[in-house]
Specification:
Length: 146
């Protein structure tokens, strides 16, 4: 059972990561699974009109972070230790959907996979596997930095 709701995650991100600028909506959240929708703007496109690789990597990383938060609670210092991404086809401009599945959640590491789609297509545009490090004090409340 998730420890944070979609609203909890949104509030947490606003408080701890006010610099985050992608418009992200959590569409589904359940134990070990998260689906987000990300609005893509011109600044996320590369020449030729496709969504850039760095934007897709940011989406994959954000989706995994949201799922980690949902599963362990508000831990600002959980961080990416590995991200491996396969770009499968050029995404179309428009919303991007990322479906994230937790493969293993341990005390110190979380491993998951993210499959990314262009809105309206069943064909994935990218696939990523990610590992997150969970700090040893993850059971305590999050504290803002600075």
């Amino acid at each position: 059972m998730p420890k944070m709701t979609a609203d909890d995650i949104s509030d947490f991100m606003t408080k701890f990561f006010p610099q985050a600028r992608m418009p992200i909506a959590i569409e589904e959240l359940r134990d070990g699974f998260l689906r987000i929708r990300v609005g893509i703007s011109d600044r996320h496109l590369r020449p030729g009109g496709t969504v850039s690789g760095p934007a897709l990597m940011t989406i994959a990383d954000t989706a995994m972070y949201y799922l980690v938060l949902a599963m362990i609670g508000p831990v600002a210092l959980a961080l990416t230790t590995n991200l491996n991404m396969d770009f499968l086809r050029a995404p179309k401009p428009g919303d991007i959907i990322a479906e994230t599945e937790m493969l293993k959640l341990g005390k110190r590491l979380a491993v998951g996979r993210v499959t990314i789609y262009s809105d309206g297509s069943d064909d994935p545009v990218a696939h990523a596997t990610l590992t997150y490090s969970i700090p040893p004090d993850a059971t305590g409340p999050a504290k803002p930095s600075g």
